[in-house]
Structure to design on (760 residues):
DNA sequence: TACTAAACGAGACGGTACGTCGGGTCTTTCC
DNA sequence: GGAAAGACCCGACGTACCGTCTCGTTTAGTA
């Protein structure tokens, strides 16, 4: 993923874009399981070696292809009203995990990370969920009391939705309004 | 997975046991990614067709091999004291997800379920986490007030730990004692 | 292929007939290569073991199923006029090898015999071609002169047609009339 | 079986040679029936796909591996003396069919051709027997009279030996000297 | 009328080859 | 020296058939 300057032909930006675009399309069309390096290369109209040169496996390609979208979808413009901000964030999170392309990519990668430490490291390198939650949670912790660490607060906020969707319960039964109240109450005296 | 009918040679119980044993061993030895139907059959000293005859894929074998252990590890003997029971359950859950063989199998399956709906259906067919939590949560809901559905209470209890570990944050930063308090507070006035 | 008398259930004649019938049908429908012991048993509505009990491989079944037809098709009613009898025999031989079901079975078995000595022994045990030719050739050898052995005369008579058809030249280019003349001339002073 | 085009890695000549060598060895060692594409690839130290890429089945590999030897073994250096040339050819033919490796391959292929039209077409594409005989027969037909077609003369010459050996009568009873006389006499007034 | 014994159908068993697919690498030519 | 092309070796896929082995059932003797 490093690019050297100097001698030789420079990296083809069009090839890079083709690959990222291809992996995005393919994830939707065939799903993660049927996503292959060979298939990506063919769909992108690119040599196989070119894919391997810049990414070591399909997880890396997929990560690079989806992380920007993921960040955007999880970014909430803060109003300063805790209830509103939390609610907006949980809605965004639910939509991301349950319905978005980037979210599907994230879930696939997180699944792979359970038994592939390379993928786990990749995901840890850019903690999309944690960082997005921190933006909402940090102001509250600074302002309010509670002795919760930011990490714990994040887990408390994200956890229930995260579990709901990843365990296959579906997003319908997620009640973000009620969860905001629970979160605030749990936080309160802590 | 049951079969009955007088005719024909009956299913070999020893073959079944060999396969389940083999998949258990192999998960530990080579990991989920390198687990193959071929490898399972060879390790079990069994024909490949015999494996395919009773299980459609490695996820099914693994599920059958680990679900009983999983249930045992997550079963908590209730004392009737909410704080103690909840604490015991969260400790068991943390240990299961982070350190147990059966837990590793569960995490692998849950990962696969994110992009394979057959596996998702398989996991949904026996909701190990949900059921084990219900045993602890149900008494509280009956006793106490709150308008939380059992499902929501379960997600509230399990979610934070679940997120912590599956997102790669590690079990060290899980503080079950504090989480019990949060849970009880969130539940309280609801 | 032997049938013992005595205790126990006697061999089922209907099973035997079903198998022979099935192999006949299947040869025509799917060809020799796709003929399998399993397929025969299923088509005959018979247990696999029953087939194996009485025949050791598909060649044996096929041989038993076709040898009688073969003998019939190659039997020529002699008139005593050499030219007519030889002509009739060569016509029968051509038809047998090129167009008949039994002939297709024979060619398949002969092919297998080239690399399977069990099948070679099976074919040698009942030399359908040789015997049928002998019936036509023997009278000539007794009557006429020539120091040809019956075997050599048989080869001389059958050989050209046999080669023509088995080497894939097709039966159209077989001129039995001319071959009779050649045969008689070659035989003449020998 | 030819491939050309600048792009891409060119076909490995060493892989091709290994495969042809392997199939030759294996035919002798295990026989045609036990010859498998898998076995060929493994023996040649070559990927299975590489074998399938250039040959569709074991018959094609075997054909390519043996056809050159076959042609050599059946080539007779003509003296111009019919009796000598015919005799030499029949001796070569007998040796080829009965004792040579290439001949064993030919018989196996011819057997397969009886029930596999792909193999039949393959054999027909290079009529080793017909062409070799034509070289000996053509001069006679041009010189002498007779209204025999080259095809018929070929069948007349080859047929008896061919039948003798393929029908399992063995090469001992082949009397090439006598057969030359028969052939010449049959040819004579025709 | 039992009992015994073998053949019967069904179908699971351990094996192994099938032909295909993807993995990751290597070797060309072209840019 | 990057890139497209495509052949290379490897090994898992899921299927088919091999020949064998249990099962419960049926059909004869023989006792």
């Amino acid at each position: 993923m490093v690019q050297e300057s100097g001698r030789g032909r420079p990296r083809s930006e069009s090839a890079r874009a083709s690959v990222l675009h291809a992996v995005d399309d393919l994830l939707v069309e065939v799903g993660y399981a049927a996503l292959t390096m060979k298939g990506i290369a063919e769909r992108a109209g690119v040599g196989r070696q070119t894919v391997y040169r810049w990414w070591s496996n399909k997880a890396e390609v997929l990560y690079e292809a989806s992380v920007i979208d993921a960040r955007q979808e999880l970014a909430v413009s803060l109003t300063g009203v805790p209830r509103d901000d939390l609610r907006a964030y949980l809605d965004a999170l639910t939509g991301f995990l349950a319905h978005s392309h980037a979210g599907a990519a994230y879930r696939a990668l997180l699944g792979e990370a359970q038994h592939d430490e390379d993928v786990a490291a990749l995901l840890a390198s850019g903690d999309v969920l944690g960082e997005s939650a921190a933006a909402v949670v940090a102001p509250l912790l600074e302002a309010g009391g509670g002795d919760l660490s930011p990490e714990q607060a994040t887990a408390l906020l994200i956890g229930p939705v995260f579990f709901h969707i990843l365990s296959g319960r579906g997003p319908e039964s997620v009640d973000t309004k009620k969860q905001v109240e629970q979160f605030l109450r749990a936080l309160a005296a802590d």
User: Anything to note?
Assistant: The mean pLDDT of chain D is 93.
